[in-house]
Write a structure and sequence with these properties.
- The structure is a single chain.
- By secondary structure, the chain is mainly alpha-helical.
- It has one domain.
- Helix content is 77%, strand content 0%.
- The chain contains 5 helices and no strands.
- α1 crosses α3 and α3 packs across α5.
- The longest helix is centred in the middle third of the chain and has 29 residues.
- The radius of gyration is 17 Å and the shape is globular.
- The relative contact order is 0.18.
Length: 143
């Protein structure tokens, strides 16, 4: 039986990088539009305890995503033909197929059933795809 190797340093770096990406994505890039689409009052700032709780949960979520994604990517190395692909190709395949199969369907359902805007859909699903690309690249190059 083949052994899977998970680089925990790569997972930790991916967690931090993904946290930074989330800050950039939902603050300077799309923060105002996202807040408007979510119905938040732009003049009302959340309490620091609420922000801290959100950051802690974000870090835990980022860890779970990176750790499980690292296992998935390691499992895919046993598929014939993947050894001949570059790290970039493997990362792109992992990111796109994970996004297409797991993130996109949930966002589509949430948008339609929860009556969210398509603007919010594109902001959120775009973040998920960018996040997967970032984490996949880190994991693929730090094998």
């Amino acid at each position: 039986m083949n052994e899977m190797h998970i680089n925990m340093l790569a997972v930790a770096i991916a967690v931090v990088a993904n946290f930074v990406l989330g800050f950039i994505w939902y603050t300077p890039l799309f923060g105002k539009v996202w807040g408007k689409e979510m119905g938040y009052d732009p003049n009302m700032k959340p309490a620091s305890s609420v922000m801290m709780k959100g950051m802690i949960f974000m870090i835990v979520g980022n860890f779970l995503m990176a750790y499980v994604f690292a296992h998935n990517m390691a499992a895919w190395t046993f598929v014939p033909g993947t050894a001949e692909m570059s790290a970039t190709q493997n990362a792109c395949m992992a990111a796109v197929f994970t996004w297409l199969g797991f993130y996109l369907p949930g966002e589509l359902g949430g948008t339609v059933w929860e009556k969210k805007s398509w603007t919010l859909f594109f902001i959120n699903t775009g973040y998920h795809l960018a996040s997967l690309f970032l984490v996949a690249m880190i994991l693929a190059y730090m094998v």
